[in-house]
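chain below, 564 aa
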Amino acid sequence: MRVAEERNNVALELPAWAQGAFTQMFREVDDFHPDIIILTARKMPRIFEALGIKLASKPLIISDLAIPFVTTFLSDSRIAIIDDIVNHGSTLTHIHNSVSAYKPAVIKMFSLARRSSTPLLSISYASPSCLSDDEYTAYVRTVPAVISYLCKPYDLAFPIINAQYRAPLRSATDLVAWLRGHFGEKQVHVIPSPYPNSPVRRVSILFSLTPSSQRKIRLFFDDAWAPRFCTVVPMVIGDNNQGEEFTASGNEWSILSSRGKLNENPEFFLDGQTALNMFLNSLRWFWDIFPSFAPVLDPVALFSKNDAALVFGPSLPEPLLTGIEAIKETSGMRKLTPFVSTVSPFLLKIQSQKILESAAHRLPEGISGAGIDVYGYVLALIEVISEYVGTQDPREYKLDWPFSRREIEKNPYLRLRVGPTFADLLALCSKLHALVCSSPLPDDLENSLSITLDALIDQGSVVPTFANYGAKLFRIYRKGESPAQELLEKISYAVAAHGKPVSPTRLSKLLTVLSHSEKYSKVLTSSARTRGYVAGAPKTVIGAEPENIAGCLRNIGMLRPVQQ
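prediction:
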């Protein structure tokens, strides 16, 4: 096994102990000679790829999302299940139990390290000692740094399409300028980098956003690594994914379900059907709207089959591939039916008023009253909900729905499948704003929430997943391991100390002064800009792009617009 030494060696973003632990863990995995490797959650497949890990044994490598589609491969196989940090072992245990039902020859679980002083004996740890809080925090802060070197989203369940810029466009900057001119400034948003050294720029183009559904395209660029190329990721996301516009046809579904025997496990059936529906809906929608991009983008392929294999198994059956290829040819010829909106029971079942009051107390005093701050609202809400569901410790689970405390004691993994939908978050943000602020809500609250979630998912602070509420699967959002980056909060305090909204020139000077202070020199850097201005260009999430700080401060009333 080797870790690729490319792009300034991505592994160096990790703490020293983690660099060694990754090497040791995959050496042990190779020595195990697995037939199948299952990479847990959504981050492990991305970490695996970003580090450029190569295994001599050439096993089948999938994510745990693909388990429903590969059950016929599991029998009599040697299976390695890999996670990075074990908190309580509930994720590994859940996957182990799911796989063991199909009678593999042997299952072995691997992990970098553990947080508990009492190790689970059935897991092989690359780092023998228990991680301290500081070691754990240092590690989870750098995971988004490693993943940020990929021109791909954190989420796996969407088609990834590689495309080349058409002449005369030569760079990401050219393409973003064209997109803004074509779709409008309000629809095209530069999403901040999740890490200072990230070479990848991110853009979200928002199309139809309603409380029950989102349609967006995410673009990823790295002009230094792949000049004149970008990754296009269409996303059609419905809160209730059984109500999607387009579902797999009987032929397509029967091929995958028979191979994976999805009907034998109701949970697998729902997860597998939802993943396939999201993929097909997103792919079909993209080719419906592709004429809007045709002047500037030339797709290399219909979609990346290697990335699809992480979710749907080693190779999509030829009849299914033929059906998917037809999507490109028939796009625009079939009218899609509207979403069937099903309201999530989340807000009705949880103690939403207590959650709102607790979230309000977590907002920075004196700042929340100045205007709307969706980023701050989401962070506060997700943190409070995380405490209710016991994300850090299942013994702290406080809800009676959708699972009882007894059910969580029996299967702690279930707590990681509880959270609000997009519509739930939208309602919670609206109510939280009314609780702390008298200013009216903006008309584009859906847009603000959507791009906020993009930024938080990229940095690993929020994790998208599925929740089974009443035998219906919903797309939900829960707290991730990586601490949220809150540079804007620190800048907001500095601006608030001025006592009144500042001008863009004064903001530039303020950021520059902060960039030379000992406290903020690691997250801000000053550089010369056009017209002689000196700007403090942030290196972290709220500010890989200077307009992000300016935009957020403007939204909360702290930046005075330039007088024309």
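The longest helix spans residues 266-289. Residues 346-479 form one domain.
thats it, cya
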